[in-house]
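User: tokens in, sequence out, please.
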């Protein structure tokens, strides 16, 4: 296909406003794309390479401006292009405003004659551009782009400039390509979507749909070494999760970076959430996987930065490792990381995407030695109090909280849905007076571990719950020293406390309750801080609790 034909079709697609018309126009383009179908399916999205590839053009706007300026003539420089961009608003319009075609120089006719450039030639030249590396690579990139622009009509230049900067701007996304592929080659949308999920290559999927139909799409499978998009979670509550599912799978939520592990039986490759290859910066994760696995597999998990004691460090410390390209050994000494696997997508030639989560976890447990600390902890329960205990343990260990998952759910790459829910951050807080407490158990037997919370009422104070989550061991010792002198009565492990200390408390929601004097209960309360700047008179009132409950 001539690139001019592609540009003409792209302009027609850009002119459409209705989604159905855009899909129809893209389907028509696919139907006439011929041997360039795979490339065209990527180009319409502003993508040069398959989504799973880590290759990039590595072309910044300034290099693109320089190439346009050279093709535009002697009296044009990159600054002039940038000024015109400020006036016209987007790079395609700027490129189309110049009269290309008359400039000579290195690469002006690379890969072809002075006739029209083809889609295949554009793809080849851009692949060469992406491969340019080392000293002189920037000049090579400009030369290559200059050669392409020098052969472009204004309309071709419009879409070439957008493609180079991955800003196609014609209203075509992954959903459009999916629907257009199904329409162009008369295959089910569901089959196309599944093939896209496991291959991350819309070009390959379009070609298979055309040449092999639905059966060919069904035959596309995961491949070790080819990353897929990560399944995503949405914010949710324990209450909603247990209302929707018979029981919930509960996992700790780590403050780390998502990593997909690919092991082919010999070599390990690691990919970030954005499917970038991050193998080299994380050698200890590679070593961990080489030791833990004895057969090919694809795992999903999280890399967490840890201190000398193995306790988690903030997310920013993980980023320091991910971004390291040089002197990795020194970075490893400065910031250690640990991998926690929580899902298994593939084992020894068998794809598990359509397998329920609880079975995928069984396969994961069977894949990794029992004495390994690679696999993250996992529970199933329908008891909200048990979930609260798990969350408390996660927070005490320094992690973000918990993940709630449907044990029957399949793995849907790139999808964010209700099957995975992260406990949403507390959006409101209450300042509550501590009116009671309970002594802890086990290693916490010598400290107060649970605190009774109350709010101001007409009768004095009305209880709204108890909090034990979010308090570290050190904080418990400090709070015990502070509150023990305020104890006015004891009954077994329970004590009554003079209302003098105020806690700032987060919570998931407020529910009606007959258990507490206020008539309300804080669902999953979490200790945030002691309000040293205020006393009981400044604590929240029952009327505010009522307003918050009504507004939920």
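Assistant: Sequence out:
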């Amino acid at each position: 296909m001539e690139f001019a034909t592609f540009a003409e079709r792209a302009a027609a697609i850009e002119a459409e406003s209705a989604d159905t018309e855009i899909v129809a126009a893209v389907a028509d383009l696919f139907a006439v794309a011929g041997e360039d179908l795979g490339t065209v399916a990527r180009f319409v999205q502003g993508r040069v390479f398959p989504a799973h590839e880590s290759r990039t053009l590595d072309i910044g706007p300034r290099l693109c401006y320089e190439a346009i300026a050279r093709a535009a003539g002697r009296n044009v420089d990159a600054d002039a292009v940038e000024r015109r961009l400020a006036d016209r608003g987007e790079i395609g319009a700027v490129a189309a405003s110049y009269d290309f075609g008359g400039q000579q120089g290195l690469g002006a006719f690379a890969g072809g004659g002075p006739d029209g450039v083809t889609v295949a030639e554009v793809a080849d030249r851009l692949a060469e551009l992406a491969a340019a590396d080392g000293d002189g690579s920037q000049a090579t990139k400009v030369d290559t782009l200059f050669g392409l622009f020098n052969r472009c009509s204004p309309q071709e230049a419009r879409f070439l400039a957008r493609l180079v900067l991955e800003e196609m701007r014609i209203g075509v996304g992954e959903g459009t390509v999916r629907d257009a592929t199904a329409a162009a080659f008369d295959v089910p949308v569901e089959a196309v979507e599944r093939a896209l999920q496991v291959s991350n290559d819309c070009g390959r999927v379009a070609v298979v749909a055309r040449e092999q139909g639905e059966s060919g799409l069904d035959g596309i499978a995961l491949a070790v070494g080819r990353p897929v998009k990560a399944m995503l979670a949405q914010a949710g509550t324990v209450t909603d999760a247990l209302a929707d599912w018979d029981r919930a799978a509960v996992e700790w939520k780590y403050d780390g970076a998502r990593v997909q592990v690919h092991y082919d039986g010999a070599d390990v490759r690691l990919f970030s959430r954005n499917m970038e290859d991050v193998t080299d910066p994380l050698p200890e994760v590679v070593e961990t996987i080489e030791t833990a696995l004895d057969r090919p597999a694809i795992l999903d998990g999280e890399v967490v930065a840890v201190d000398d004691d193995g306790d988690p460090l903030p997310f920013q410390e993980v980023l320091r490792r991910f971004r390291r390209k040089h002197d990795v050994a020194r970075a490893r000494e400065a910031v250690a990381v640990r991998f926690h696997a929580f899902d298994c997508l593939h084992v020894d030639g068998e794809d598990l995407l359509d397998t329920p989560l609880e079975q995928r976890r069984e396969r994961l447990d069977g894949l990794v030695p029992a004495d390994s600390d690679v696999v993250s902890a996992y529970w199933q329960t329908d008891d909200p109090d048990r979930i609260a205990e798990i969350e408390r343990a996660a927070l005490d260990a320094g992690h973000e909280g918990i993940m709630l998952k449907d044990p029957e759910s399949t793995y849907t790459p790139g999808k964010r849905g209700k099957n995975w829910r992260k406990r949403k951050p507390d959006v409101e807080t209450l300042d509550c007076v501590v009116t009671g407490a309970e002594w802890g158990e086990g290693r916490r037997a010598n400290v107060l571990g649970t605190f009774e919370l109350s709010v101001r009422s007409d009768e004095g104070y009305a209880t709204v719950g108890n909090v034990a989550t979010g308090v570290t061991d050190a904080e418990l010792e400090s709070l015990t020293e502070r509150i023990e002198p305020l104890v006015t009565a004891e009954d077994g492990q329970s004590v009554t406390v003079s209302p003098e200390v105020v806690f700032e408390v987060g919570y998931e929601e407020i529910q009606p309750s007959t258990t507490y004097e206020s008539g309300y209960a804080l669902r999953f309360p979490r200790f945030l801080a002691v309000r040293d700047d205020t006393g009981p008179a400044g604590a929240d009132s029952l009327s505010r609790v009522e307003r918050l409950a009504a507004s939920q």
